Amino acid sequence: CDNCSGTTSSASPIFVDGDGGSVSGVSTYCIDGKTCTLTYRHPPCLLVQTSNIRYSDGYVALYVDSGDGYVLASDPGRKYGRNEVVVDQCFADLRGVRVTNTNRDGWIGEIKGSIDGKATYSALACDDCGSPTSSASPIVVDGDNTA
Fold it and tell me: Looking at residues 110-133, what average pLDDT do you find?
């Protein structure tokens, strides 16, 4: 937190209050009606990798929006092998990721993001994937529903 009060600039945990109160155990404050700006300490990174399970190899078209609209970030005409990295890249800004596949040979993999310089990754959420969970790890991307 670039303009917060307190003994640290970490926003975890952060105390936000409109009248200047405080809470014990929290060393970062955004109080007295102040607006505090939270920023990434590291640029957001994206890791897209084919699973290592049988029949996971296939085709995937991956688009990344890093502030200028969605741009193709993979080769949709290439068959990605098991455990192969499709994208491993950090971005100054990462607004969204889209995947599709019009090929009959489906792709199974993981789409994960990191905000701590690639030290740890978490699965991205997919709000319109049509599955009971929103996790994009693992995800099946197929052109004919027979991955």
Answer: 84
